[in-house]
Each structure stands twice: as structure tokens, then as C-alpha cells.
Specification:
alpha+beta, Immunoglobulin-like, Jelly Rolls, 10-stranded mixed beta sheet, 15 helices, 44 strands
Length: about 850
């Protein structure tokens, strides 16, 4: 037996924290049936004996700037013993900053624009006998650090996007390259989310009037002395550095001919953030370059622009080797699609998505550092192809990929790839809706429906803890949840609304099932209950009868958002059906959470409320026998999947759903709220063949239409690219009519409809958690659609779980991996069940396709 992973707050190494960390470990064993008997976790004199492998909270003392060794000794049921060690470092722990926020008070940020990046610098002297050097830094804006001209760290967009009036992260960097004598530390701070232009209305100065920077550099010498070099008026500031422009939507302008010695430097001014936010050691996942992309083709457009095709839509930046002349300007434009061989940029709306680089003499490299784009194609002008070597960097939050899925159907495999790339592209410090146009906001509804799919494919634990902390901070006193988190200038009022607001339940629940850490549920429990309280209040407003008091109409619902039939008015009109069903579902989930947290009274209350809502839904919206008075696909999907029906009523609702699909010529007609669940509603109610037919539909609207049309990520609209090759830029109110002159609403990288991945993993591969973290799980592959094989695997907190099945010559063969300390119930297509503990297990049975 061995310890295969040991993590502190989700990190195997490098954690710096201002909060009591959580310790987790996984075991591996060659002998089948191994299970943890007990473990001792020891940290610097503190220890605890436990039988839990997930989320043990360190309860010992913490001292600022101190390294702590963590050692785990685990004993298995076989008697085998395994040991492993790692470490973490305590951060500042509320140590007052000797540094001051600094800025250039004379600079005025232009209206609706992003500010010019500010440069700050400090020259300092290092004496002999330096033992260790590190710095802590943060900013209002996003910052880049250089020490003696070399970049510090690997992060993009530090300190990250948070609800700045409540909390701001700081980063800690150990410094290499410090020599005796004179050294120079330089920081470049762009407007970012705090000051820069943001939202399609181009609001700016949302959290600050101008950028500011805060830093402390610690020099620890062999004799025990520590020198702190802190930001203050003795630092210098400049606004005429090489970064001439940087913002999310328009891109970046960099002039390499500008040298530090030619900048206009002056004494920095002191500043302060608005309010009194907590400044906390980084608790989210940093944004970093994850891989290099190479063009798969290039051409010359009729306009003369060089066009490079990277073969994949993604979020990132170009990385160019340029052979240029001093003063030569090279321009890089970005787009998701080509039309008639030219970049199609109308769908970007006001976003210019352009990087501009002014050369020095000779060969040089350039890659934007203070922005990112969503693109597949890059158009380049101002240089010949012979003088340019172009690659690109995929940029997103540092998330371990935990899940995989593949099958015998190449189109379904392409769909899985698009689902994963959609997640990568939109997990850039917050869960954005899209990475390319003038939006990139943390829309709650998108993540609400994608949460389970995300938590299978990626380790979302640190990423979600960060974002949910902001959600909790920005919840209204009455329980409402912002439509966008952080709210950051978004114009929607904070209110309780279905699906979008239900993210406060659905996101932590998905993470608990995937990761098994009750701590996240405890952290978010009050947020959930306050939200349900608000939903209950609104559902009772202006209602007289008991049943009417459980129908959730007010104040607003997005309804069946982006359903392929109708337009925004039609989607909103379905809000009360969707709101009421989501209300019932969240009550059921929170009841289960209350049980897990030891709140049986709450659990009983929410289960009773759920039953009342179900009774009201059936009385108000159905004939009592499974027929909706107003029929639409999502209207049947939600009560079927949320367990709101029983007996003959369930069969009738399933029949009616199939009829509506048939009436749509075999197509779905669901928006955000119904799309994740439509295949479950069919397959879990005896309509397996109908589910596979819907999945494998290849004409619009369908998932496979996207991939057959060349989509490499999931689209916002089912018909973002029409069958005739034109881009659908119709406005929300057009109802499929004339295209909007301002670019309308179309994104080729919008992950919400990719929530179908959850069905691929839980039904086709058949891997479904029963207890949090897959401590117990089920493998019950679903056969259909002519599939001859499928494989899914997921890295659980206990180790890898997998299902690998195939059918040949009437024989079904299944191999299942079960991690140490877990158990799995295996259900074969012939109905037989088996329970297995850790190890690899194989099964066979006869199978005859229907």
C-alpha cells in the first residue's frame, strides 16, 4: 500500500495560506479489497488519528511566514503501512502591512475606457549572506512583476478577480536571481477588472478610480535579520511604459522600443482601496499558460491579412517570434470563425480583440501578458509570413483534469472534446459565459447547469471555493443571488431567481459529490437556506390559496433561456414553470445537505416544503394525469428528472415529452434549464432509444450538429452557425429574424449546453457517485445508439474510478476500477448486481441489442 497523493487545500505543494488548511490523501494498493483502517496526521507537534481521508482540518497553532511539515501515516485493513509528507506555509495571518498602496493620483481614467498601464519600480541593495527572499504583492487591477528584467512567477492576471470590496487576494513569490548589490523590482499594473472597461456597456472604475499596487519584499539573512522593502512614496511610478494599452475586450498594445531609462518616472502617491476589504493569501487557482498550440493551416485572405488556423477554439494569447525592424508595427487580430476566408468579428460586438506590437531591431518575442482572447483564427498584418513564427498559449485557471470519456462513436468523442475545451476556455479565474466578446462575466446560470459536468472533468475545488466565497459575500440580506458573480457593474439587481440563483445549491452540491469535502457545504449552507427563504417569500407574494403560494412567479426568471424556438419574450414567459420546478429540486438537495451536516429539523422542513411545491406544480400546471396545460419540452423534462411525478403520471409525461420531440422532427427544444436533464428524463423513464436518438441527432438544433459543422467548443445558440454557413447574429428580440447590426448574441464558446456531458459519464459510461467523493459509487452502463464500446474514468479523492465496456458477438464485457477505501455497485445490462471493493474487476453477460 502507498499514499498516491497528499494535498493541502487541494495543492500537492506550494500552499501559502492565512486560514487553517484541509488535509486529504489517497491510497493505492496492489492487493484487492484494501481499505484505510486508520491514519495519523501530524503537523509540527499537532496530530490527530482519523479514519477519514478527505478534508481533515489542521487545528494546531499558526505563526506568520512559517513553514509547516505535514506527515501522514496510514494503516490499511491488511496491516500495510504507508507514509508521505508535504508542507505548507502560513502567510501573513493578519500581520499589518508595512507597505502602503501606491498609485499616480494625477492620472485620470478616461470614461468608458481602460486606463493606461502604470509602472512602479524600486531599486534596492542586497547585502551579503542572504538566506531567503520572498515577496507578497497585490493590486487594484492586474499586475506583472519583473526582478532585474525577468518575470517573477508564472501567473497571469494576479491578484485575480474577486468581490474587491469584500476580499482581495495577495500572492507570495519566492525570489531567485537576487544577487549581492543593486537590484530592481518593477511592477506593471493594468486596469483589469477593478478599473478597466467591463461589461458590454463598457463600465469602468467599478472598484477603483485608478490602479494601485501593494507589495512587501522580505530579505532574510543568515544572521537572522530580516529587511522589509515595502511600497510607499519612495517608489517611482510611470504611465509611459511599453504597455500602451491593456484591457479584456480590445486587447493589448506593446511598444518594445520603450526602455525603462526613457520613461518619465516620478514619486508614487499613496492610495487606499474603497471600503475595508480583507487582504488574504491566494485561495483560488492561479491563471497560467497550460499548453502551446501550433497552427494547422495558414492562408492569405483577399484583404491581404495573413490568416492562421489553430484548429481549435480556445482562450489564450498568441506567442510570436518576430524578425522585425525598429518601429515596425505588427497587428494580431482574433476571431472564432472565418466567413469567405476573412476573420468574422461582428459577433465580438465592441471588442476589438487585437494585440499590437511595435518592434525593436532583429529577432524578438512577443506574447500579451495583460489580456487574453477567445479564438481559433488569428489574422496578422504588418509582417511577412517568412519573418514570423506564430504559436499560441492556452491560458486558463490551473485546474487538474480529472475526467475522461470516449466511445466507439467519433462524433460523440468530438462532443466530449468540445465540452472539455468549453470548460478550459471559460474557467479563467471565474466561470465566464464566454471568452471572446465584450462580456466574459461570471453568469451564475451558465455554471448552475454545467456544475456536475465541470466537477467530473476538472478538479474545481479551489476554483469553486474562491468563486462561492464571492457569491456568499454578494448575496443580498434578503437571500437574493446576483445573476453575475462578482457583480462587477452588471446592471441586473440582486434578487432570487431560478436556475441562476440555484447555483448556490447546485455548484457546492456538485463539488461535494465529486470531492467529498463537507467543509464546502458547511461554508455555503447559510447561503443556500437564505436563498430558499427568498424563493419561498416570492412564491407566496400575491397568492391566496395554499397551492398558489408555492408557485414561483416573481420577481423575475430567465425562463427557458436560449431555447431554439422563440425569442427572449417566449423564454421569459415560461419562468413560473421552471422556477417552481427548480425550487422543489433545490429544497430536496438542501434537505440531503442538512442531513449530512447534522440538521435533521431543517431536513424535515425542506422535504415537507418540497412536497408542497410538487403538489402545487401538479395542481397548477397539469391535469393531474401527466399533461401540461401549456406544453413545452423543458416543462416535462424538469418534473421528470427532479422526481416530481409518480406512477402512471410519470409514464404519461415521458410519452408527452417524446411526442414533443417527434413533433420537432426528432430535435430538442430546450434552453439552459432543461438541456442538462432531457436525456436523463428520457432514459431514466424507459425511453432509452429516444434518448440516444436525440443525442445522435445531427441536424440543427442538436449537439452533434455543432461538431459536424466544425465546432470545437460548445455554442451559445444551437444555430450559431446556420446550415448555409452564415453566422446567426440575430438579436434576442428578433426571434430568428434579421441579424442585429451590433453583432447580436452569438458565441461559439459558451459551455452551458455542454452539460449533456453529465449524461455521457453517469449513463453511457455509467459512473455515478452515491456518497460524496465517490466513497461509494455505482457503475451501470446504458446501452444504445449502436455504440460498441465506451470508457469513462474519473480521478476521485480516493484514486481513479473507471468503467470500460464493449459489446462483441452478443457478449457484453465490463472492466471496473474501484479505488482503495471505496465500494462500487455494478449493474450489468442483464440486471445482475455485484458489489466490489478496491481493485480491478471484470464481468461478462449476454447482450442482445433491441
Amino acid at each position: 500500500m502507498k499514499i498516491t497523493s497528499l494535498t493541502i487545500d487541494g495543492l500537492a505543494s506550494g500552499l501559502v495560506t492565512d486560514e487553517a488548511p484541509r488535509i486529504s490523501f489517497a491510497l493505492g494498493a496492489e492487493a484487492p479489497g484494501e481499505n484505510l483502517q486508520s491514519a495519523v496526521i501530524a503537523v509540527d507537534g499537532w496530530s490527530v488519528e482519523t479514519r477519514e481521508q478527505i478534508g481533515t482540518v489542521y487545528a494546531g497553532p499558526l505563526k506568520p511566514f512559517t513553514e509547516y511539515l505535514v506527515r501522514v501515516t496510514a494503516t490499511g485493513s491488511s496491516g500495510d503501512v504507508a507514509e508521505a509528507a508535504t508542507s505548507f506555509r502560513a502567510g501573513r495571518l493578519e500581520t499589518p502591512w508595512s507597505g502602503q498602496w501606491i498609485t499616480d493620483r494625477a492620472y485620470e481614467t478616461p470614461k468608458k475606457q481602460s486606463p493606461v498601464p502604470m509602472s512602479f519600480r524600486k531599486t534596492f541593495v542586497v547585502g551579503a549572506g542572504l538566506r531567503r527572499a520572498w515577496l507578497e504583492a497585490t493590486a487594484l487591477g492586474v499586475y506583472e512583476l519583473e526582478l532585474n528584467g525577468a518575470k517573477v512567477g508564472a501567473d497571469y492576471f494576479a491578484p485575480g478577480f474577486t468581490s474587491y470590496e469584500n476580499q482581495i487576494q495577495y500572492q507570495t513569490y519566492d525570489l531567485d536571481g537576487l544577487g549581492d548589490g543593486e537590484n530592481t523590482l518593477t511592477a506593471t499594473v493594468a486596469g483589469g477588472w477593478a478599473v478597466g472597461s467591463y461589461t458590454h456597456k463598457r463600465k469602468n472604475k467599478i472598484y477603483a478610480d485608478r490602479q494601485a499596487f501593494l507589495c512587501e519584499l522580505h530579505l532574510e539573512y543568515a544572521d537572522g535579520t530580516v529587511e522589509v522593502i515595502a511600497t510607499g512614496p519612495d517608489w517611482q511610478v510611470s504611465t509611459d511604459g511599453p504597455f500602451r494599452m491593456a484591457e479584456w475586450y480590445d486587447g493589448e498594445t506593446y511598444d518594445a522600443t520603450v526602455a525603462q531609462e526613457s520613461q518619465s518616472w516620478k514619486q508614487a502617491d499613496t492610495a487606499a482601496p474603497r471600503g475595508t476589504p480583507r487582504i488574504v493569501a491566494q485561495y483560488g487557482s492561479p491563471v497560467r499558460a497550460q499548453q502551446v498550440m501550433h497552427p494547422v493551416a495558414h492562408s492569405v485572405a483577399a484583404s491581404g491579412e495573413l490568416i492562421f488556423d489553430f484548429g481549435q477554439n480556445f482562450a489564450g494569447v498568441v506567442s510570436a517570434i518576430v524578425r522585425g525592424k525598429r518601429g515596425q508595427t505588427v497587428t494580431f487580430r482574433h476571431a472564432e470563425v472565418l466567413v469567405d476566408g476573412e476573420l468574422f468579428v461582428k459577433s465580438l460586438r465592441t471588442a476589438k480583440a487585437t494585440a499590437t506590437y511595435t518592434c525593436v531591431e532583429g529577432e524578438q518575442t512577443y506574447s500579451p501578458r495583460l489580456t487574453y482572447m477567445g479564438f481559433r483564427y488569428v489574422g496578422v498584418s504588418g509582417i511577412t509570413a517568412e519573418d514570423l513564427d506564430l504559436t499560441a498559449l492556452v491560458v486558463h485557471s490551473d485546474l487538474a483534469e480529472t475526467g475522461s470519456f470516449t466511445s466507439s462513436d467519433p462524433l460523440i468523442n468530438a462532443l466530449q472534446s468540445a465540452i472539455q475545451w468549453g470548460g478550459r476556455s471559460n474557467f479563467v479565474d471565474i466561470p465566464t459565459d464566454c471568452p471572446q466578446r465584450d462580456e466574459r462575466e461570471g453568469w451564475t446560470g451558465d455554471y448552475a447547469v454545467f456544475a456536475t459536468t465541470a466537477s467530473y472533468n476538472f478538479d474545481m475545488s479551489r476554483f469553486m471555493r474562491k468563486w462561492l466565497r464571492d457569491l456568499k459575500s454578494e448575496q443580498s440580506p434578503g437571500g437574493g443571488i446576483p445573476m453575475v458573480v462578482p457583480r462587477a457593474g452588471n446592471g441586473f439587481p440582486v434578487m432570487a431567481t431560478s436556475c441562476w440563483g440555484d447555483v448556490c445549491v447546485l455548484a457546492p452540491w456538485a463539488e461535494y459529490l465529486a470531492r467529498g469535502d463537507l467543509g464546502l457545504l458547511r461554508d455555503q449552507y447559510e447561503t443556500m437556506t437564505k436563498f430558499l427563504g427568498a424563493a419561498s417569500w416570492w412564491s407566496g407574494l400575491f397568492s391566496v390559496t395554499k397551492n398558489a403560494r408555492r408557485i414561483w412567479r416573481f420577481p423575475f426568471h430567465f425562463g427557458d433561456w436560449t431555447a431554439p424556438d422563440g425569442a427572449v419574450r417566449d423564454w421569459l414567459a415560461k419562468g413560473k414553470w421552471i422556477g417552481t420546478a427548480y425550487f422543489a429540486n433545490s429544497c430536496g438537495i438542501v434537505a440531503d445537505i442538512a442531513d449530512l451536516l447534522g440538521n435533521p429539523g431543517d431536513a424535515a422542513r425542506y422535504r415537507a416544503l418540497r412536497e408542497e411545491i410538487i403538489v402545487a406544480y401538479r395542481a397548477k400546471f397539469t391535469d393531474g394525469n401527466g399533461l401540461l396545460a401549456k406544453e413545452f419540452q423543458t416543462g416535462y423534462v424538469l418534473p421528470l428528472h427532479f422526481g416530481m411525478t409518480s406512477g402512471a403520471e410519470t409514464d404519461q409525461m415521458a410519452d408527452n415529452l417524446v411526442r414533443l420531440i417527434d413533433d420537432a422532427d426528432g430535435h430538442l427544444a430546450t434552453g439552459f434549464p432543461g438541456t442538462p436533464y432531457i436525456l436523463f428524463a428520457l432514459s431514466d423513464n424507459g425511453r432509452v432509444d429516444d434518448a440516444f436518438r436525440l443525442l445522435q441527432q445531427t441536424s440543427s438544433p442538436s449537439w452533434l450538429y455543432m461538431v459536424e459543422s466544425g465546432g470545437t467548443t460548445i455554442w451559445e445558440r444551437w444555430d450559431a452557425l446556420r446550415p448555409d454557413g452564415t453566422v446567426n447574429t440575430s438579436s434576442l428580440t428578433a426571434g430568428g429574424g434579421d441579424d442585429s447590426s451590433d453583432g447580436g448574441m452569438v458565441s461559439f464558446n459558451h459551455y452551458a449546453a455542454g452539460a449533456v456531458g453529465d449524461w455521457l459519464y453517469r449513463r453511457v459510461a455509467g459512473i455515478e457517485p452515491i456518497e460524496g467523493g465517490y466513497r461509494s459509487f455505482r457503475v451501470a452502463p446504458l446501452m444504445g445508439g449502436g455504440l460498441a464500446s465506451a470508457r469513462g474514468s474519473v480521478t476521485t479523492p480516493y484514486g481513479q474510478a473507471s468503467s470500460d465496456w464493449s459489446v462483441a458477438d452478443g457478449v457484453f464485457t465490463l472492466a471496473v476500477e474501484v479505488p482503495v477505501s471505496t465500494s462500487c455497485t455494478i449493474v450489468l445490462p442483464d440486471g445482475t448486481e455485484h458489489v466490489r471493493t478496491s481493485g480491478r474487476h471484470e464481468f461478462q453477460c449476454e447482450f442482445v441489442a433491441a
